[in-house]
Amino acid sequence: MQYSNIPMTGNFVETVLGSTIMSQLGITLTHEHLLSDSLKLYSVSSGYNCANFSLHNFGYIKQYPYSNWYNLQLNDKHGIIATFKEIELFKQSGGGTIVDKNSRLNRNISALKALSEATNVNIIIGTGYHITDTRNLLTCTTTTEQMYNRIYNELENGCENYPDVKAAFIADGGNILLDFEIRALRAIGEFQGQYRYPVTFHPGKDVIPLIEIMRIYQEAGGQSTEFVMSHIDRTLTSREDLLEFVDETKCYVQFDQFGVECSFYQLNPFTDIISDAQSIKLIALLKEDRKLHRVLMSNDIHTKHRLTTFGGLGYVHITKNVVPIMLKRNFTLEDIRVIRVGNPCRWLNRLNL
């Protein structure tokens, strides 16, 4: 894999090791949380003390993943070692690139560079704002102009404290559309419309109007065809709603809960997470409607129990377990290539060549 400091053009994308040609991205996971610290998500809602992590209580941890402190730390010694092994397995199974969705305040660039160098897997990071950032009072009071300028600097001039590393996409996320989220969406929409960097949005644990998110973003100047709506597998699980949303917005829809295989969503018991099989059926529906070019797939791994070292299915799950099922259900190898290679490459390509 060759990296350089070539300025970003339509044929190159920024990784933590520098610019690389788009054709070298290969199979891409578009929504992961490498070495993340998710302690802010800790919840006692389970009523069960998951203090230990063992085979004996793995079932409870799978059901209540946010009630175990140890499980929420991928950035400790055990998490780092397990993540390294996981990325190696991903590479061995044909993987090429991982898009790290951690927020600006929850990323370890030096460690990500080391992981990429050791495994020869591209790691792409983003910039922007996320709901977890709102616990920082300074972030909550940031103006739209200040948000715009920070996004500009990390994409064009290099990340804070790491000027040799540039972000490659804009990430946003929120629970409800309060003033902070609206300001962030407007800043992102305005910037994106001018500079055409790809955008990905992370719906929070609460039910929010996805169409309203798109409206605010587009009214500020953002291009919907360069926008990814994440977590479709727990936000748009109705066939009718999904088709209507894609028809109206023309954005990418990302199925990123592959490997969870637990319908109970601890952070919001009123929301269900659909199974891998149900996600495949919705993707098949989009194929029938000639919208396969708008589909992305990932795992959204941000806890230890999802990694193979700790009994999970890991980053290889889609390749090893999901794709074989899809091939038995009227998907072709070309369909898989479009979803896993072509679509991520087109989304990450600023000029959409």
Automatic annotation (TrEMBL):
<keyword id="KW-0479">Metal-binding</keyword>
<dbReference type="InterPro" id="IPR001559">
    <property type="entry name" value="Phosphotriesterase"/>
</dbReference>
<dbReference type="InterPro" id="IPR017947">
    <property type="entry name" value="AryldialkylPase_Zn-BS"/>
</dbReference>
<protein>
    <recommendedName>
        <fullName>Phosphotriesterase-related protein</fullName>
    </recommendedName>
</protein>
<dbReference type="GO" id="GO:0008270">
    <property type="term" value="F:zinc ion binding"/>
</dbReference>
<comment type="similarity">
    <text>Belongs to the metallo-dependent hydrolases superfamily. Phosphotriesterase family.</text>
</comment>
<keyword id="KW-0378">Hydrolase</keyword>
<dbReference type="GO" id="GO:0016788">
    <property type="term" value="F:hydrolase activity, acting on ester bonds"/>
</dbReference>
<feature type="modified residue" description="N6-carboxylysine">
    <location>
        <position position="166"/>
    </location>
</feature>
<dbReference type="InterPro" id="IPR032466">
    <property type="entry name" value="Metal_Hydrolase"/>
</dbReference>
<dbReference type="Pfam" id="PF02126">
    <property type="entry name" value="PTE"/>
</dbReference>
